[in-house]
Amino acid sequence: MNREGPMRLRVYEPGDLEAVFALVARTIETSYAGVYGPTAIAHFHEHHTRDEVRRAGEEGCTVLLERDGRLLATGTLVGDHVDRVYVAPEHQGRGLGRRVMAALEQRAREAGVWTIRLAASIPARVFYERLGYRLMSEERHDFPDGDCLPWFKMVKDLGPDAAEVPSPPPSASSDEGLEWLVEES
Question: Mind listing the pLDDT tens digit for each residue in 124-137?
């Protein structure tokens, strides 16, 4: 019997700063190891500082997916740009990123934003393609030490005539049957 409580999707509050920052930093270290070199990983950390997490939370909509007070996933929408979508490494592959993206896309629609864009890492590109994002361009940042950071500009039309991307069928590793609560701030 599963004794864990329901998952809860809610909007970021200033007191969430350290938890979001820690989740992002840990996920960068775990998920990008072996994909990107050390200079590229350091660049990700420089982009996702506490100040950036705080700024995005104030200027846009950052959502948190948690269970029993533990942060499992997060993502941010500022204007028409999605950023900082991270799922704790031990919870990846269970549909949590899809839930975060659905919440951010809904927020965009509510704000009258019909096209959203994002920058995808190598590990995240396929995830976003499965959600209906289209590749706009392949980018590359070269560092003086010879390391490089390939990434992808992607876009999705959210308009009323846009095709909905169907959800995959539930699997044994999904969190089907859990109660989903959405709380407004």
Answer: 999 999 999 999 99
* Cα 106 versus chain centre, distance: 14
Q: Phi and psi of 63, rounded to 5°?
A: -110, 150
DSSP output for 79-136: TTEEEEEEE-GGGTTSSHHHHHHHHHHHHHHHTT--EEEEEE-TTTHHHHHHTT-EEE
Residue 78: helix, strand or coil by DSSP?
Answer: strand
Q: Report d(CA 61, CA 77) in Å as an integer.
A: 5
- For 50, half-sphere exposure in the C-beta direction (CA atoms, 13 angstrom radius) is 7
pTM of the complete model:
0.85
CATH architecture of 7-177: 3-Layer(aba) Sandwich (3.40)
